[in-house]
Automatic annotation (TrEMBL):
Region (Disordered): 514-534
Protein name: AAA family ATPase
Keyword line: Coiled coil
Record-annotated RecF/RecN/SMC N-terminal domain positions: 324-948
Pfam name, any one: SMC_N
Transmembrane segments: none
Coiled coil residues, start to end: 605-632
SUPFAM superfamilies per the UniProt record, alphabetical: P-loop containing nucleoside triphosphate hydrolases
Length: 997
C-alpha cells in the first residue's frame, strides 16, 4: 500500500469514479528480449527497477516484451515481493512485429496486445503464445511464439489475422486491446502506394487503439481517414515511454523531449482502460496535465470535494434514521446521482444547493414544508441533521438542513431544480428569465468592451442613455400633441358642429326677439323753447360721450387682455431660458466629472450666452401698462373734467356712470314729449347694442357671438381636416422617431451577442438549430395595461373579457415587432375599429389611451432564444425546457459547481441523447457538474465520471444509503442497469460501456 494514502483516502479516491491518472502502457522491463539496456536482470537491477516504478507518479504500466510475457511475469513477481500491498496497475503488453508492411522501405509494423490482468493467467498467456505462429519455419514447420530462440526475435513476424484468431481462441473480446504503432514502426504517414494505403486501413480497422504522439490524436479521432471513403471510428492514441533502460525511465516524468505523459480518465483497472475505446476524445490526454487538473489546482474554491451529513448531537432517531454518517466525495467533472423514485436523489441536490447558498430555494422539492407539500423540512426532521460542504480549497461550510439560505452572502453553487424551467416557461416573458439571459450574454463580453460596467444593466445604461433621453423628450412632445389631437378630433365630430349650429340658431332667435322688441318709431317733438333745445342738445352730446367712453372701455379691455397674455408669455420665456441655463450648468458639471480622465477643457468646449435684457424690459413695460389700465384713480368728476384723458378701465367705468347720472338728471328736466322721445332713442340704442353684441364683428369676433360661431363652422369645414391630418402625420413622425430610438437600443443588444452565437452554433446540428436573436419583445403586462384603458362591458371590438382578450391576442399575432409599419398598422387598426368618438364610453380617457398606444412602451429590445427558427412562445413545454437547458449549459460563464435535478423531465429520449448529453459534456469541461437523473442518455451519454447510487429504505426506518463509483466499475454497472432505462441508441452505447457481451 502507498504509505502516503490512508485507507479512507483510497476509498474516497475509488468512490470519486473515473479520475485522471498517468498511464504508461509501453514500458520494457529488465530482460526484455530485444534492446535490453538495463544490464543483467539480477536482484539489484530488479529492485532498482521496481522502486523507480513505485516512486513514479504513473499509476498504470503496460509491461512489454517481444513475443513473450516473461517481463510481465517477472515484474509482477518482483513487485509483490518488494511491495506486497502495491496499488499500481500492471498490464501485460505483448509486442509483435507484423508481417504486413506499409512503408516503401518494407519496414514492418509493430502492434501490441494489452491483456486484462484479471484474465491474464499464466495458462492463458502460455496458450496464446503457443497458438500464435510466426512466419519463421524450421524443417517445414512454422515456429510458434513460445518456440522462438534468442536469434529469432529480431526476424520474427506474425500476421494480424493470426493474432486476432489466436486472441479470440484464448480471451473474450473484452479481455484484450490491440494497440498498433502510429508513428515510428507504425501507420501514420508511412503508406504511400495504393496497396500500402489499403493494408494500412485494414490494420487500422483491426486495431482498437494506437501508440503515437499528441500530433497523431486528431487523425485517429477522425471519421474519414480510410482511403476507400468508408467511415472510420474514432480511436484513442496513447504515448508511452518505450523504456529499455534506466535512463529511459526518466521519461516517466513526462518532461523528457518527445515523450509526453499519457493521462487516462478511468478507474485504475483494465475495464477503465477499455472506456477510452468508447470515449477516445474525452478520456485520453497527452501532455503536461489535463485542463481540469489545472483548474482543480488554480480554482480550488470552485470545486466541491465532498458532502457530509450527520445527525445533530442527541438525536434519538425517533423520526427515522435518514442520514447517518453520509460522506459523499464528488468527482471534479460530472457526477450523476441515480436511484429509483423516492430514493433520495433530489435530497442530495437540495442539500448541496442549500449549503451552496442557492437563490433557487423556493424550488426545492425535498427541503420543503408548505401546507400542500409537507416534506423533510417540517419540524422534527431537517432540524435534526447537519449538512457540511467541503471544498477542494479546504474551506467548509455547515448549517442545519432546516435553515434558510442567506441571500446577503454570495451564491457558491448554481442550482437548476426540477421545476425551475417549468416556472420560467409558464410565463416566458418574466423579468427573471430576461435578466438571466442578459447576465449570461454579459459574461461573454470582452473585458475591453465592458466599459468598467459591473453588470449588463450598468453597461446598457451607459451605452443607451442618449437614446433613452431622446425617447423621453419625444414622449413629452407626443403627450402635448395628443392634447391638440384629442381637441381636434372632438371638434371634428358631427355633434360638435351641430351644437354650434344650434347655438347660432338660439342667438338668431334672440336677435329676432330683440328686433321685435324695438318700440314703434317715434318722431322728434316740435321745437320748443331755447332752454329745451339746449337741454336736448346737451343730452345728445352727453349720450355721444357715453358711447365714446364705452368704446374706449372696450378697447382698454382688449388691450389689458393682450397685455396680460404678453406678460405671461414673456415671464415664461424668461423662466424657460433660466431653466435652460440651470440644466446647461448641471450637465456641464456632470460632463466635467464624468469625462475628467480625457483631459478636455469643458469650460472652453461648452459656453452658453444668454441675454434677457429685452425680455426684462418688456416685462417691466407690460406691468406698467397693466397697472395703468387697472388703476382706480378715484377721479372726482365735475364740469371741468377732461374725459379724453381717462384711460384706466375703473376710471372709464366711473366716468360712464357719472355721465349716465347726468343724462338721467337732464332728461328729467325735459318736457314730456321730449322725455318720451329721448326714452325711445335710448331703447333703440340699447337694443341695437345688444344685437351688435350677439352678432359680433366679422373682422374680430368676440367669443360666443354669431360671427365667432360662424367662423368656427367655417374653420371646421375648411381648416380642421387639414390641421388634424397634419397633427396625425406629426404623431406618426414622432412615433417613428420613438421606434428608431428603441432600434438604437436594440443595436446595442445585437452588438453583444456575437460570441454567444458562436457558442450556440457549435451546439447546433441539422435537427437542432439553436440561436439567440436581439429582438423587440412584448411586455408581459401589455394586455393587462391595454384593457386597463377600456370598459369591456360596453359595445366595441373588445367587449367582454374572454372575447376581447381573444381578439386582442389575435391582432398581436400578426405584428412584426421589429418592423415599424407593422406596429403602426396594428395601432391604427385598433383606433379605427374602436371608432373611439362614436363609442366614447368604451375608452375611459382618450388622451391617456393615445399616450399608451403611440408611446410604444409595451415592447422593448431584448434577447429571444429560438429553436429551429421558432421563438420560445411557439415551442412545446419539452422543447422550451431543452432549449433553456442548452442555453444555461452552453453559455453560462460562471465556473461555480452546477447542480441539475432531473432535467430530462418532459424531454424525449432522442433530444436528450443527441443534444442535452452533448451540452453536459461541454459544460463539465468548464465547471463541476452534479446531475440528478433517472435517464441513461444523460448519465451514460454524457459519460459521467462518477455514479452515486442512492437508496432510501422506507421499510427500514427511512435509512439512506449510497454507493459511488465509475461507470466501468462492475458493481456500479449493476446499479445503472437496474435503475436506468432509455432509447435504443443509448442502450447500444451503454451495452458497450457496460461491457455486456
Amino acid at each position: 500500500m502507498n504509505a502516503s494514502k490512508t485507507p479512507r483516502d483510497i476509498k474516497r479516491e475509488s468512490d470519486r469514479g473515473s479520475l485522471w491518472r498517468k498511464w504508461d502502457l509501453h514500458l520494457h522491463a529488465p530482460g526484455t528480449k530485444l534492446a535490453n539496456s538495463y544490464g543483467n536482470p539480477d536482484e539489484s537491477t530488479w529492485k532498482r527497477f521496481i522502486e523507480i516504478l513505485h516512486a513514479s507518479d504513473v499509476h498504470a504500466f503496460g509491461i512489454t516484451d517481444y513475443f513473450s510475457f516473461d517481463c510481465y511475469h517477472n515484474t509482477l513477481q518482483w513487485y509483490k515481493n518488494i511491495y506486497p500491498d502495491f496499488t499500481k496497475l500492471l498490464i501485460p503488453n505483448l509486442e509483435l512485429r507484423l508481417t504486413e508492411t506499409v512503408s516503401i522501405d518494407g519496414k514492418n509494423v509493430n502492434t501490441h496486445i494489452l491483456i486484462d490482468p484479471k484474465a491474464a493467467t499464466r495458462n492463458k498467456l502460455d496458450k496464446l503464445l503457443n497458438d500464435l505462429e510466426t512466419h519463421i519455419s524450421v524443417d517445414g514447420k512454422k515456429l510458434r511464439c513460445c518456440e522462438l530462440s534468442a536469434q529469432n526475435f529480431k526476424a520474427a513476424t506474425v500476421s494480424i489475422w493470426d493474432v486476432k484468431t489466436s486472441l479470440n481462441d484464448c480471451f473474450s473480446a473484452e479481455e484484450y486491446i490491440i494497440v498498433t504503432a502510429a508513428g515510428s514502426d507504425g501507420l501514420r504517414g508511412a503508406a504511400k502506394t495504393q496497396r500500402s494505403k489499403s493494408i494500412s486501413d485494414e490494420l487500422d480497422r483491426s486495431s482498437n487503439a494506437f501508440f503515437g504522439k499528441a500530433k497523431n490524436t486528431e487523425f485517429f479521432l477522425g471519421a474519414s481517414r480510410y482511403d476507400d471513403g468508408s467511415p472510420s471510428d474514432p480511436k484513442p492514441v496513447y504515448d508511452g515511454s518505450d523504456a529499455h533502460s534506466f535512463q529511459d525511465l526518466d521519461r516517466l516524468t513526462g518532461d523528457e523531449p518527445h515523450f509526453q505523459s499519457t493521462w487516462i480518465k478511468a478507474n485504475l483497472s483494465f475495464r477503465g482502460l477499455r472506456q477510452t475505446l468508447f470515449e477516445p476524445r474525452d478520456r485520453v490526454f497527452i501532455g503536461d496535465r489535463p485542463p481540469v487538473l489545472i483548474r482543480l489546482e488554480r480554482e480550488a474554491t470552485q470545486f466541491i470535494d465532498r458532502l457530509e451529513i450527520t445527525p445533530v448531537s442527541g438525536y434519538s432517531g425517533h423520526n427515522g434514521q435518514w442520514f447517518q454518517s453520509v460522506d459523499i466525495p464528488f468527482n471534479p467533472e460530472l457526477t450523476a446521482v441515480i436511484g429509483n423514485k423516492g430514493s433520495g436523489k433530489s435530497a442530495i441536490a437540495d442539500i448541496v444547493a442549500l449549503l451552496g447558498n442557492t437563490r433557487q430555494a423556493k424550488h426545492f422539492s425535498f427541503l420543503v414544508d408548505s401546507p400542500n407539500n409537507r416534506k423533510f423540512k417540517r419540524k422534527g426532521f431537517a432540524d435534526n441533521f447537519l449538512g457540511r460542504l467541503v471544498w477542494k480549497s479546504g474551506f467548509d461550510f455547515e448549517r442545519p438542513l432546516n435553515a434558510d439560505t442567506d441571500e446577503t452572502q454570495p451564491e457558491s453553487v448554481k442550482y437548476l431544480p426540477q421545476n425551475y424551467f417549468e416556472s420560467l416557461t409558464n410565463e416566458i416573458e418574466v423579468k427573471d428569465l430576461r435578466r438571466e439571459i442578459e447576465d449570461v450574454v454579459f459574461s461573454h463580453v470582452d473585458i475591453s468592451d465592458k466599459m468598467d460596467a459591473n453588470s449588463f444593466h450598468d453597461l446598457q445604461e451607459r451605452m443607451t442613455s442618449i437614446s433613452r433621453q431622446e425617447a423621453s423628450q419625444i414622449k413629452a412632445k407626443l403627450r402635448e400633441l395628443h392634447i391638440n389631437i384629442v381637441d381636434l378630433e372632438s371638434r371634428s365630430q358631427p355633434e360638435f358642429k351641430a351644437k354650434i349650429q344650434a347655438d347660432i340658431e338660439v342667438l338668431r332667435k334672440q336677435v329676432s326677439t330683440l328686433e321685435a322688441s324695438k318700440p314703434p318709431e317715434e318722431s322728434a317733438p316740435p321745437t320748443q323753447s331755447a332752454e329745451q333745445e339746449a337741454a336736448t342738445a346737451k343730452v345728445a352730446s352727453q349720450t355721444q360721450l357715453l358711447d365714446e367712453l364705452a368704446q374706449r372701455e372696450e378697447s382698454a379691455a382688449v388691450l389689458l387682455t393682450r397685455s396680460k397674455k404678453e406678460l405671461q408669455d414673456s415671464v415664461e420665456l424668461r423662466d424657460s431660458v433660466n431653466a435652460l441655463k440651470t440644466r446647461f450648468d448641471s450637465e456641464k458639471y456632470s460632463f466635467k466629472a464624468k469625462y475628467a480622465n480625457l483631459g478636455f477643457d469643458i469650460d472652453r468646449m461648452l459656453n452658453l450666452t444668454i441675454n434677457l435684457q429685452e425680455v426684462e424690459d418688456m416685462i417691466v413695460e407690460l406691468k406698467k401698462r397693466i397697472s395703468y389700465l387697472e388703476n382706480d384713480g378715484a377721479v372726482d368728476f365735475g364740469s371741468k373734467t377732461d374725459f379724453s384723458t381717462i384711460v384706466s378701465i375703473p376710471d372709464l367705468r366711473a366716468a360712464k356712470q357719472h355721465i349716465n347720472n347726468g343724462i338721467a338728471a337732464m332728461r328729467a328736466a325735459l318736457s314730456a314729449p321730449h322725455q318720451r322721445y329721448q326714452r325711445y332713442l335710448q331703447d333703440i340704442r340699447e337694443i341695437n347694442q345688444q344685437i351688435a353684441d350677439i352678432e359680433g364683428q366679422r373682422e374680430s369676433p368676440k367669443l360666443g357671438t354669431i360671427a365667432e360661431l360662424e367662423a368656427r363652422i367655417f374653420w371646421i369645414e375648411n381648416d380642421l381636416p387639414k390641421e388634424l391630418r397634419k397633427a396625425h402625420e406629426e404623431r406618426k413622425t414622432l412615433c417613428l422617431s420613438l421606434f428608431e430610438s428603441k432600434r438604437k437600443i436594440k443595436t446595442f443588444y445585437e452588438a453583444l451577442k456575437s460570441k454567444v452565437e458562436s457558442r450556440l452554433d457549435a451546439m447546433s446540428s441539422v435537427d437542432f438549430v439553436v440561436s439567440i436573436d436581439a429582438s423587440f419583445v412584448q411586455s408581459s403586462e401589455f394586455s393587462e395595461n391595454f384593457f386597463n384603458h377600456l370598459n369591456q362591458n360596453v359595445s366595441g371590438p373588445f367587449r367582454g373579457v374572454a372575447d376581447g382578450t381573444r381578439n386582442f391576442q389575435n391582432r398581436q399575432s400578426f405584428v412584426d415587432w421589429n418592423d415599424f409599419d407593422s406596429i403602426f398598422v396594428f395601432i391604427e387598426n385598433i383606433v379605427r375599429d374602436m371608432d373611439i368618438w362614436k363609442n366614447s364610453r368604451q375608452v375611459k380617457d382618450v388622451k391617456k389611451f393615445y399616450d399608451f398606444l403611440y408611446s410604444l412602451e409595451y415592447f422593448e429590445a431584448g434577447y429571444e432564444l429560438r429553436l429551429g427558427g421558432k421563438s420560445l412562445n411557439q415551442l412545446s413545454p419539452g422543447e422550451k425546457g431543452l432549449l433553456l437547458l442548452v442555453f444555461y449549459l452552453q453559455l453560462d460563464m460562471d465556473n461555480s459547481p452546477l447542480v441539475i435535478d432531473q432535467p430530462e423531465d418532459n424531454l424525449d429520449n432522442d433530444s436528450i441523447f443527441m443534444v442535452l448529453a452533448r451540452c453536459i459534456r461541454e459544460a463539465k469541461k468548464a465547471r463541476q457538474v452534479i446531475l440528478v437523473t433517472h435517464n441513461p442518455n444523460l448519465a451514460v451519454g454524457a459519460d459521467a465520471e462518477q455514479i452515486v447510487y442512492v437508496r432510501l429504505d422506507k421499510m427500514n426506518d427511512y435509512k439512506f444509503s449510497y454507493e459511488c463509483g465509475a461507470i466501468e466499475n462492475p458493481r456500479t454497472n449493476d446499479h445503472i442497469v437496474k435503475v436506468l432505462e432509455g432509447s435504443r441508441p443509448a442502450f447500444i452505447q451503454r451495452r458497450l460501456k457496460y461491457q455486456i457481451t
